[in-house]
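New to this. Explain the following:
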Amino acid sequence: MMQQAKKGLSVSTFRILGFLWMLAWWSSHPGMAFDRPNVVLIVSDDHAWTDYGFMGHPSIQTPNIDQLARNSLVFRRGYVTSSLCCPSLASIITGRYPHQHKVTSNDPPVPSGMNDRSFYSSPLFAQGRETMTQQLAAAHTLPDILQKFEYRSLQTGKWWQGHFSRGGFTDGMTQGGRHGDEGLSIGRKSMEPINSFLDSCKASQQPFLVWYAPLMPHDPHTPPDRLLQKYVKQTDSIHIARYWAMVEWFDETVGQLMTSLKQRELADNTIVIYIADNGWIQKPDGPRYAPKSKQSQFDGGLRTPIMIHWPAKIAPKMSNSLAQSIDLVPTIRHALGLPMDDSLPGINLLDEAAVESRKAIFGNCFTHNSKDLETPSKSLRWRWMIEGNQKLIVPSEVNEPNDSAALFELDVDPNETRNVALENPTRVQELRSKLDAWWNPEDL
């Protein structure tokens, strides 16, 4: 059920200034005052970069996402910052790395001597989650930014940081549960309240943002039987069949969302952005994920296609340039004509010169439960970077003491099976210097 956040009677000075800036911008752009573009963010959940028809999967069918890809600017080599849901989503919605917004992990630290079950029902857990919620708010989310320019925004699906309004959303589903509570019904049960929200925004001629981040294809893998029966014929593993069917079920909901925009004549003026929060490689002999995917430092957990769709405004194109989740906020700000934030580390993906001049991307992976909510380096597991087709991974001596640096040639070894670090010590050192210049936890 959608709820709308209550607004106070006072209006902040920042909001007034932002609105005045927008009025001035409208006056210099005749004819656009009532034609501000809408934004829909589609965030797949636990979905490997290989698992789409347009990315070449031999079995999984994703006709709706494939159609979106044909009509979008697609970055086939897209990456998230971290391979774990909560920090990855926080980076998508703030445009900042985990060590910048400080939401590095899924959950707060577990106190010494307390088991997980006791901790998750304790006041200490609630206090830790509140700290994480405050950290995300302090990093300035996209909905909070857009609200200052009179956009409405709807949260559906995955949301870790408290009530939807804490993230700046004007409307939403999540009431404060650990990773979505009521919001997790979206897609699996119906596409409400999205359709009602679209109707309301159209009636009021108010621009909007929709955050569609369903718990799909995320487990529990409970697809409709009609889809499961389709895939059990293509694999000997019931677990793989369930996951494949979940991917197609998710694809169907993407088609429903796109149809909803078209039926309401909103599609032409809506920017649709697609990304997955992290990867998933299904274990064939059990319901969980395999190594080198979710929570890992490998592409199976970090890589995702990134798509930007805006009819008649963005030409469809398949790009092999590097793109990252931190690029989405600056890209959206540019597309909407909002003032840019120089503190954001990402680039505008609609700027071809910026995309072509980018030499490398960076990221970091952390422990599932934070070790210290205020000091990201204490929870670090790996830092990684990609320059060209070479990927360097550097483990934390504290949390990954038995691991060593790895260098992979992604163009010839996309599954990262052959570590060539020992054969290329000079190159490892060159990349390590760039990684340290980006973020060196030892400097803190």
The domain at 37-360 is CATH 3.40.720.10 (Alkaline Phosphatase, subunit A). The mean pLDDT is 93. The chain has one domain: 37-360. The radius of gyration is 21 Å.
